[in-house]
């Protein structure tokens, strides 16, 4: 079940990145981010596979998308 959720999240992110440029609306603040700020790359956390990253700094607690996987950290 967990692997399926992670795959769905990654698949959604890849679909998002391969689509024509558009904006992502933050449902809480109503602000927009260009989809080009997101990219998928190997995770910096050892043994976790791929991760979703941003190409620029975003304000703390910015909402980009729902993540259904297990939250991991380096701590």
Molecular structure report:
The mean pLDDT is 70. It is built from 1 helix and 4 strands. A hairpin with a 6-residue loop joins strand 1 and strand 2. The strands form 2 sheets. The chain has a two-stranded antiparallel sheet with strand order 1-2. Strands 3-4 form a two-stranded antiparallel ribbon. The protein is 23% helix and 21% strand. The protein has one domain (2-54). The protein is α+β, with helices and mostly antiparallel strands. It is globular and about 30 Å long. It starts with a helix and ends in a 21-residue tail after the last strand. The chain has one helix at 2-18; strands spanning 23-25, 32-34, 38-42, 50-54.
Largest sheet: 2 strands, antiparallel
Tally of structural domains:
1
Helical stretch tally: 1
Shape verdict:
globular
Helical/strand content category: alpha+beta
Q: Which regions have little confidence, pLDDT < 50, spanning 5+ residues?
A: none
Rg result? 13 Å
The percentage helix is 10-25%
| Annotation, overall tally of beta strands | 4
**Strand sequence of the main sheet, in spatial order?**
1-2
β-strand amount? 15-25%
Q: In oligomeric terms, what are we looking at? A: single chain
In sequence order, what are the helices and strands, one letter per element?
HEEEE
* CA distance, first residue to last residue: 25 Å
**Average of the residue pLDDT scores:** 70
Summed up, what is this model?
By secondary structure, the chain is of the alpha+beta class. The protein has one domain. One of its GO terms (biological process) is methylation.
């Amino acid at each position: 079940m967990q692997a399926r959720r992670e795959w769905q999240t990654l698949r959604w992110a890849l679909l998002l990145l391969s689509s024509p440029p558009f904006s992502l609306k933050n449902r809480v603040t109503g602000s927009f981010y260009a989809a080009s700020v997101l990219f998928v790359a190997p995770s910096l956390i050892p043994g976790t596979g791929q991760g979703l990253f941003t190409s620029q700094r975003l304000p703390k607690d910015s909402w980009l998308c729902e993540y259904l996987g297990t939250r991991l950290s380096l701590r």
